[in-house]
């Protein structure tokens, strides 16, 4: 993966020499950012006792390697509750993330490529709403949902996740430049309807921005904690964040009895972060450019 | 059907004769733009519905609820701005606001310094190590804040975390990070760890967008690499920096997840009104004071708006536009 990025890298004139201080600085940063993950991996291989009084210290392996047993215990604990949470997280993130992206692409294209009455005013409202702290909406949303008898259902998490004003902003900024009006007009002259033009001409041109908005919304929903914590009370509906947060509180509240729960929390954390890390590493060529979209304007 | 707009606006005669289409050109093009305006709304409508249902109505509902108060003896009564007077004189709410403001003022410059320094260094290197580092620094962004907080909670432990290993080398007791003296720094570290890589990537991408011939010109004028970084690169990415600062500010004032997750192991250092969001959550779900919780949520929104407005106003002279 690094080879590809190197060849893409812009050749800088002069100074090809390696800067030792800069590299030491980078290594120090990498050690800092990876240290907790290394700890998580090491801790996942320990049994309940080793986690707290392991022979090798916090950042090295204990004498017995317990990773497989820990995973087995995790997957069977309370009838596979953890796997359920993982599935819920995936469901919320995929449906919420894809939905938010579809809405953002449509609306961003609409704002960028059509002139109509009220457009500038609606876009000004949208820009203002980017400043609204979304977590301040959680409790009012919970109360609205409970009026509609939607709390404690998957919709209580998925529907609010469809809201992504920033995604619309990014898509508008990107579509304005990446989709030339001349091309759209040419398609229209050729008899292509507006929606056909959108799917055949505009969407392929907007792909980098679409992948970026998709990643941002999937991550946003996957990582969300406050909203599902507020609107869900049935633990079979919890996403992984609320589930593990609950275990953490439970383990802390009964000091001695929580010891075995801690190994589950640790190995559960490890398993749950793997999918998104893989997604980011494998899709890097899309999002690395895309993340700057909003900033370049 | 060569021109859908023609057939759409005049389904009867015009479409068959090309002559008719050309003579009535003017009214047709006008009608065509009107019909396309309709289509613009169609594209925006699905998002618009979600926007109204899940942003406008919760805000309106919260505001509505905040105008009432509920007492055991009195029932629900209209209290006007009474709840807001109560909120902005409530020491618990004010201490939460004070905490997040202080936290933002200390955290954001530190976070910015880390991500800007990393981005500038990465921009000046094209080695394999630099490419690898860029990805690794970014990785924490993909990890949920809940899990980041759980990990750091373990790592902070003075009895079985790495601090214990470190301090036992010099025969010292490891410090307690999750107590009221050190919690500020402890939370700051979690947030910097989580977000610095994300901001670094945005800054880095903005830096890659600069035309490198500008650096050449600066070099010919005798600028050294450090001067190029601080006097040429940084000023050219001001709008990216302002955008990041605004998002960091909004995010920090809404602080919830990290303190909420660390609360059970923080020995009372994180109170029930530690941040405005935690206070609102506890008011709603511990004490069922939904009217007052709505007031706190709405008041937090007001605080965020004022803070962002002050920030944007104070940086107005030094930046390009944020909107497109």
TrEMBL record, chain A:
The chain crosses the membrane at residues 20-41, 90-111, 123-142, 154-176, 261-283. The keyword tRNA-binding does not apply. One of its GO terms (biological process) is transmembrane transport. InterPro entries: MetI-like, MetI-like_sf. One of its GO terms (cellular component) is plasma membrane. Belongs to the binding-protein-dependent transport system permease family. This is Carbohydrate ABC transporter permease. It comes from Cryobacterium zhongshanensis.
TrEMBL record, chain B:
Keywords: Cell membrane, Membrane, Transmembrane, Transmembrane helix, Transport. The chain crosses the membrane at residues 38-64, 99-122, 134-155, 183-207, 228-250, 292-313. Residues 9-24 have a biased composition (Low complexity). InterPro entries: ABC_transporter_permease (IPR051393), MetI-like (IPR000515), MetI-like_sf (IPR035906). It is a multi-pass membrane protein. Its main location: membrane. Residues 1-29 are annotated as: Disordered. GO terms for biological process: transmembrane transport. Coiled coil: none annotated. The keyword Cell membrane applies. It is found in: Cell membrane. One of its GO terms (cellular component) is plasma membrane. Residues 97-311 form the ABC transmembrane type-1 domain. It comes from the Bacteria. CDD domains: TM_PBP2. Pfam families: BPD_transp_1. Belongs to the binding-protein-dependent transport system permease family. This is Sugar ABC transporter permease. It comes from Cryobacterium zhongshanensis.
